[in-house]
Amino acid sequence: MIKQKLKKIMAELLGTDEAKISADSSMDNTEGWDSLAHLKLVAGLEKFFNIKFSEKELLRLRSTKKILDILKSKNIKRVKNEEDILKEIIAKIMNVDSKTIGEDFSMETISSEDDFTGKVLFSEIEKKFNIQLTIEEIKTIRSYKDIKEVLKKHGVLNNE
What we know:
Layout: H1 2-14, H2 35-49, H3 55-60, H4 64-73, H5 82-94, H6 116-129, H7 135-140, H8 144-153
Helix pairs in contact: 1-2, 5-6
């Protein structure tokens, strides 16, 4: 899973098609992977995986394979999926433990237009997932299950 996510991140940050990213992709053979794109890639990887590369590691970040090796050396085995991220946002804004957020987790108190917590929460969700929620969608949200359904319509979560 980490390998696929890395390919997706690299393609996005390098401005290329994911199919063009392989274990052998490097600064020498990948279109768009110039020094400026490399800086964006390093910053993007640090932000996404919530890590910092050492000077020694920065010098080794020259190919997909080497990046993957370094990520593995940092014990990054699992990449958070969008639902994990959604739960973290809700937990942070609503001041609850993310483990307590299940399908029936009530969100009724935040669906009114006047509720400040709701405004902050929906703003964070819009920013994180790069979407725009409508007032009508927000008014339908009464539980965690409801917000998942709205995000599925926006293509953020899979329809499983």
